[in-house]
Structure formats: C-alpha cells, structure tokens
C-alpha cells in the first residue's frame, strides 16, 4: 500500500470510527464509490475496532485506576535529577503532574513536574510527549509556561519540568475578581498574544480551554499544556504527522473546532475557534452550544450544525453572570462585540479571523471605539447555510423554488456587477490612453511649430485641459494626481499643489470615490506643502491621511507605521523636536508589532529618529542611532541601495556637527564612490551628497574644494530639475552663502538672485524657503558690514529663523 493510500485510509478510519448507524453507512458508501480498492480494508479496520478485547483492556483499565488511586505515594519524596516531588497536583491522559522543588540548595524554586506513566506508554503517546517537550523548549513568551528541565526516571519514564503557575483557571479568576467587561477583554488579549506567538513559531495548541490558561497572583495569564499540540512543520521534530485516532480524541470537546471534531487536519484557525468559545464563556458565563453535560452527540451536533446564540442574548440566560449587571452587559455587547465573537466561531475556517493577532486587534478596535473588521453575515450567506442544513425538507416545500429563484437573481446580479466593473475599468483605461495621446501630440513639431516644449509646460497644458474633456471624475482626479507627482519629481512643488488640491476637491465631491484614493491625494498634498515650507497644512493633511489609514488597516499595520513616521518628519521640520521623537518611536513600535522591525520603512523611521536626536542637541545619541540605521540598511537594502547611500550621507552631516571630521570624510568619500556605481553622473540624488561634501570641505578649511563641491550640487540640480525647481533653489542658495562667507560678494549676490528667482517659482514669496534665503542673505550682508541691509533681510526671516538648516 502506498503512503498516499495509507493516509487516505487512516483519515477515513478517523471519520468513520466516530460515526454510528445510518451516518456511518452513508459515509462508507461514499468512500467505496471514491476509493473502491480501499473500501474492504476500511471495513476490516472498523470491524477490528468494534471487537472489545477484555483480556487486553481490563489490565490497562486496572493499571490506570491504580495510577489514579494507589500509586501516588510512590512518587512523593522521590528526587528526579535535582527536583524533589512534594505532592500530586493533576492527572490526565498523558500522565500525572506533581509539585516539586529544587533539592540541591542552589536556589529555591518550585516547579510542575509531569511524568508519563508506564501504563500509558505507546509509540503515539511517546511521540506526543517528546513533541510537547520540544515545543515547550522552543517557546519563550511571558504568557506561556516555560520548560525548565527534562529527563527520564529510573524506570525509563520520561518527565518534563515546567514553570509552576500558582493561579486559577481564567474563567474562575474573572469571576472571583469580579472583573468588568473591559478587564476581561484585556486579559483575553494577552492570551491571544501568547497563542499568536506559538502560531508564529509553527505550533497549534489544539486544547485551548480555561483549565489550560491559569492566571497567577499578579494577574498575568499563562498558557499551559501543549500535550496534544501539533507542529505546522512536523518534520522539524520528527513528530508523527498523521492524526491518529488517539490524538483526534485527545481534546476538550466543548472547546473544539468543527474540523477538529470531524477528525480533519487542524490549523491556526482551529485555535482561533477555541479562543472564540473561551471568550464567549468569559463574557457570558455560558457555552455557545447550550449542551448537556452527558451528551457527547448533542455537543458534536451543536458544534457542527448549530449557529451560536449572540453573546448579548446569552448573557441574560439563566446561569449567566450573577455578580455583574446582565442588562448593562447586553447593551455593551450588542453589535460589535457580538460580531467579533461570532466571527471567531464561524463553522468554516476561512471565515474566521486569520490569526489570533487579528482577533486581538479587533477587540482593541472595540475597546478604542473604532470600527471593527467583524461584520454581520450577509443575507445570502445565512440563506445558503439554511439551505445546506435543511436541504431535504426544503425539496418538498414550495419555498425551495422561491429560494432557487432568489439565488439565481443574486448571482445574476453579482455577475452583472463584475461585468460592469470590468467594462468601467476598460473604459477608464481607454480614456487615460486617449488623453495621454492627445497630450503628447502637443509636443510634436507640427503642433509646437518648432518651439521646444518642456516637460513642465506639457504637464501644465495637460492639467488645463483635463476638466474640459469628457472624463469620469475619478479619472480626472487620477490624472491630476499623477501630473502633480511628475511636477514634484521635476522640483515644481508650487505648481504641483493646485493640481493636487483640485484632485482632492473632485474626489471629495464624487460619491464613488473611496477613502483610500482620497488618502493618497492627502498624502501627496502633505508632502508638497512640507517641501514648500507650509508646515501647518502639511501636518493637517498628514494627520488626515493617518486617520484614514488607521481606520482602513487597523492601528498595527505597516502603512499606519509609515504615516506615523511621516507625521513625525513634518513635526521635525517645524522644529517640534520632542513631538517628532515621540512619533518616530511610536512608528518603530508599530513596525515591531506588524513584524516589520527590519523593513526598509522601519529603517527610515530609525533614521528620522536619529535626525530628531541631532536637533534636540543629543549629538552622541544621534551618531549612535545613525550608525545603527546605516548598519541595518546595508544589511537589509544592500550597500549600493539608494536608501543606504542617503542614510550614510545623513550620518556624515551629524559627524560634521559633532566635529568628527576625519570620520565624516571617510563616510562621504565612501558614499560618493558607491553612488558612482549606482547612478550616472548628474543624477539628482548626487546633489544632496555634494551638499554634505561642501559642508565638510568648508569645516576643514579647504575652500577651493568647498566651492567645487557646492557648484557640483548646483549643476546636478540644474540639469535634473531646471532653474525654477525646489532642488535648484536650495543648492544655489548654499553656494551663495559659501561665497559670501569667503567674501566673494559679487559672485554671492549673483547666486542669491538666482536663488530668489528659483524659490519664488518653486515655493512662493511667503514660503519657509524664501525666509531661509533672506536669512542667509542677511548673514552675508553682515560679513560685508552692510548692516542696514543685514537688519532688513534678517527681519524678513525672523518669523521662522529657528528652523534654519
């Protein structure tokens, strides 16, 4: 028999052995139809299973009874390794658990010592016991009871030494402490965190229940007993991969998922379901199934077929909360909390929360009065479930015909929507293509009549024409936003802003525009306003973008982390440095929670944090932070990545400020050498590197090299972006200042005139950059001892003089 056939047969045996009567017969007929060559073997296995061998079973039962009753004393006082057993604290299917203490006097410690008894030894049981030991050894989490030691007794019985948790099951603890709803949810979130950690380490617990979650005297929950846990990558520990019959029944039925009850393979979703049952009990004091304790079949039927009652209804049932106000609890649960619990309890794994972390996050949204991801099941879904559960009665009823018609209408409507969406997308693509064709036609010699048409002019002409064309509003907004992005890339931030503002107006007035599209325009507006120095507007748009992203993705998403970081950058530009530091730290924390600690965006946040440290006067800390940023960037993005080169250049700037000029020299030389391998001469990124080289040469007193480096920066900016660009305005301003400090006043004046013209074109007369130009002109006038001019120019820049770079 092949391995595949054996696996099929084993799974079929698991399912059939748990069925009886007509249900088993239906299952066997279906199996024989699909696997005729295996049906006889399955029948033989079931027949053998039905034969109760009293000669074998009686001694095992007697041994188990003896273990529970008379064998306890033989372990009390015994020493295993360095651990002396004091008393028994639990017994179960895998053996017994004892309280023990360290006997070598090295230090005082109490532990839980779990022994696998000889009467229970079997290849499968040994495999599970060893797997539990390996699992515990791999898990280190504050809310998971940890493995301390392990070994074998003189009788060759394996044992585990685990952290002893002096506590109570989580449901008993909640009742004993009279915890309110919020406290129960927050405690439950810690359980989710622990389980999510286990899942991320490829472990499915498979037996989540109150007895396996103890809350200690400090109020911290501890997840216990991985005795029937399953590895998602079982080969890693040589663990039996198939679910044996013994394993499939080693569960707490009232907390088991439907797929676990059926004997199907379990997954993370199975633990999420068990978490849903646990939360239901913590909130209502009830089971979601209303089962009777003596009826296994009724519990299985409820798990597989019955939709749980809403917690807000169950909380008022007899046997529910007594010490808490059930009426008030009902008001708090109706709606979002009902939906959260019921989403975790969906019969189909794919309809539950994808992870325990997602479950925890939705609870956090509920606790913070934000929209939750759980939504009520749609009418079509509830209807399909009803039909599936009541197929035969409905076949005999006229209502079935109406239902079929309803489904036909539903799916016809769905196909129509999908067809219309495809047609709309095709029409949108045609509209954009036709527009771009007509736009670039304006640059042809026949239309331009031999006059050169610049990219900026082309974009401006296109923007003027967009609203005169018969385009859909969302298409108009997309085109305007894209044109604005191109303007920004050309250093024309001032010209980009009207395009973005108009795109924003169109989207806000268009019913079919979604929040994501609007947030993209908000984000682009924020960056454009930031670059022209209008920081109040930049901050306002950035915060609106962050609010939308938080609602769309949740508080722990990497997009939220990125936008939090960008709010910090804007606050840094406003020299609200302490706030910027807080925001960058928050962004890093979100990246950590999102599992993106070493992503390129997270490294950006570290770099921004380092910049803020520098301007806070914490120069030594800034150097350390910049070095860590560069180290991570080289590791994650690579030594030749543009981000790595920019981050290294930032380190150069901080080293210059702190006076480590030789180290700064080595760093900027390395940046320029690597940049030459990445970009052609004249690439716009080089302007920033030449700027830092210019600063360094000035500090070193090598003034000819200072002017050369600044001039290279200016030339790059002119070539790439033109003389009306934001980039050119800043770099020519830097050169003018250097010339002034070197008392080359005529040349300085000439370059200042170019800086003023470029700043007017790119940022405007009232911009932050214009004030910086005037401040630098004032400083040059002071060097020239033209004090009247200096006073006038410095006054113009005083409004934001504290923001000078």
Features:
805 residues; alpha+beta; three-stranded antiparallel beta sheet; 64% helix; 6% strand
Mean pLDDT: 76
Calculate the terminal CA-CA distance, rounded to whole Å: 77 Å
Radius of gyration: 35 Å
What is the overall shape? elongated
Determine the number of helices (DSSP H or I, runs of at least 4 residues). Answer: 36
Quaternary state of the chains: single chain
Q: What class, by secondary structure content?
A: alpha+beta
Trace the largest sheet across and list its strands.
1-2-3-4-6-5
The helical percent reads 55-70%
The number of distinct β-strands equals 11
Strand content: 5-15%
Largest sheet: 6 strands, antiparallel
Q: Which regions have little confidence, pLDDT < 50, spanning 5+ residues?
A: 52-72, 233-249, 377-383, 391-453, 800-805
How would you briefly describe this protein structure?
The chain has 805 residues and is of the alpha+beta class. Strand 1 and strand 2 form a beta hairpin.
């Amino acid at each position: 028999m092949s391995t595949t056939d054996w696996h099929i047969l084993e799974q079929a045996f698991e399912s059939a052995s748990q069925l009886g009567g007509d249900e088993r017969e239906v299952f066997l007929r279906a199996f024989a139809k699909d696997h005729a060559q295996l049906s006889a073997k399955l029948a033989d296995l079931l027949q053998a299973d039905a034969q109760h061998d009293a000669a074998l079973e009686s001694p095992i039962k007697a041994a188990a009874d003896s273990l529970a009753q008379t064998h306890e004393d033989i372990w009390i006082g015994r020493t295993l390794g360095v651990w002396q057993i004091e008393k028994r604290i639990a017994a179960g299917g895998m053996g017994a658990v004892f309280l023990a203490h360290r006997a070598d006097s090295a230090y005082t410690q109490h532990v839980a010592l779990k022994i696998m008894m000889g009467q229970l030894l079997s290849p499968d049981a040994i495999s599970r016991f060893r797997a539990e030991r390996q699992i515990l050894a791999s898990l280190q989490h504050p809310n998971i009871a940890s493995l301390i030691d392990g070994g074998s007794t003189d009788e060759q019985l394996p044992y585990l030494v685990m952290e002893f948790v002096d506590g109570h099951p989580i449901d008993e603890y909640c009742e004993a402490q009279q915890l309110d709803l919020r406290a129960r949810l927050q405690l439950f979130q810690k359980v989710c965190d622990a389980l999510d950690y286990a899942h991320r380490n490829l472990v499915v617990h498979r037996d989540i229940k109150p007895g396996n979650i103890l809350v200690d005297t400090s109020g911290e929950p501890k997840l216990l007993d991985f005795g029937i846990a399953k590895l998602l990558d079982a080969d890693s520990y040589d663990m039996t991969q198939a679910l044996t019959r013994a394993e499939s029944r080693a569960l707490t039925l009232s907390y088991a998922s439907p797929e676990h009850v059926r004997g199907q393979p379990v997954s993370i979703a199975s633990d999420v379901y068990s978490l849903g049952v646990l939360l239901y009990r913590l909130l209502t004091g009830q089971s979601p199934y209303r089962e009777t304790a003596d009826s296994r079949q009724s519990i299985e039927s409820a798990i597989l077929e019955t939709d749980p009652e809403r917690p807000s209804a169950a909380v008022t049932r007899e046997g529910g909360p007594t010490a808490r106000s059930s009426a008030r609890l009902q008001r708090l649960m109706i709606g979002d909390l009902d939906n959260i619990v019921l989403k975790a309890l969906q019969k189909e794994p794919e309809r539950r929360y994808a992870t325990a972390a997602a479950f925890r996050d939705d609870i956090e949204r509920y606790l913070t009065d934000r929209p939750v991801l759980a939504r009520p099941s749609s009418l079509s879904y509830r209807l399909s479930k009803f039909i599936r559960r009541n197929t035969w009665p409905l076949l005999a009823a006229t209502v079935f015909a109406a239902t079929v018609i309803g489904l036909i209408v539903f799916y016809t409507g769905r196909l129509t929507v999908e067809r219309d969406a495809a047609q709309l997308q095709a029409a949108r693509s045609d509209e954009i293509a036709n527009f771009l064709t007509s736009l670039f036609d304006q640059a042809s010699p026949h239309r331009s009549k031999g006059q050169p048409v610049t990219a900026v002019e082309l974009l401006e002409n296109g923007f003027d024409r967009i609203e005169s064309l018969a385009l859909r509003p969302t298409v108009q907004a997309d085109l305007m936003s894209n044109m604005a992005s191109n303007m920004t890339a050309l250093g024309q931030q001032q010209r980009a802003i009207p395009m973005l503002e108009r795109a924003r107006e169109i989207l806000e007035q268009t019913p079919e525009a979604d929040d994501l599209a609007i947030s993209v325009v908000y984000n682009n507006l924020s960056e454009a306003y930031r670059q022209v120095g209008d920081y109040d507007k930049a901050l306002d748009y950035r915060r609106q973008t962050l609010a939308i992203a938080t609602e769309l993705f949740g508080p722990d998403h990497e997009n939220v982390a990125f936008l939090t970081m960008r709010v910090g950058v804007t606050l840094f530009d406003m020299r609200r440095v302490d706030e910027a530091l807080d925001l960058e730290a928050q962004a890093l924390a979100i990246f950590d929670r999102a599992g993106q600690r070493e992503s390129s965006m997270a490294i950006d946040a570290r770099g921004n944090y380092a910049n803020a440290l520098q301007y806070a006067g914490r120069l030594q800390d800034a150097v350390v932070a910049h070095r860590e940023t560069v180290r991570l960037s080289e590791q994650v993005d690579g030594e030749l990545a543009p981000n790595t080169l920019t981050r290294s250049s930032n380190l150069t700037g901080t080293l210059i400020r702190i006076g480590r000029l030789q180290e700064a020299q080595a760093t900027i030389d390395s940046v320029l050498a690597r940049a030459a391998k990445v970009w052609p001469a004249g690439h716009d990124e080089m302007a920033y590197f030449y700027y830092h080289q210019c600063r360094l040469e000035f500090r070193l007193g090598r003034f000819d090299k200072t002017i050369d480096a600044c001039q290279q920066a200016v030339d790059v900016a002119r070539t790439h972006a033109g003389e009306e660009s934001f980039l050119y305005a800043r770099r020519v301003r830097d050169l003018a200042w250097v010339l002034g400090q070197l008392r080359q006043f005529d040349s300085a004046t000439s370059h200042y005139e170019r800086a003023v013209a470029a700043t007017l074109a790119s940022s405007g007369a009232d911009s932050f950059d214009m004030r910086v130009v005037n401040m630098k002109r004032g400083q040059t006038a002071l060097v020239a001892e033209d004090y009247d001019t200096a006073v006038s120019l410095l006054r113009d820049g005083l409004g934001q003089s504290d923001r000078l770079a």
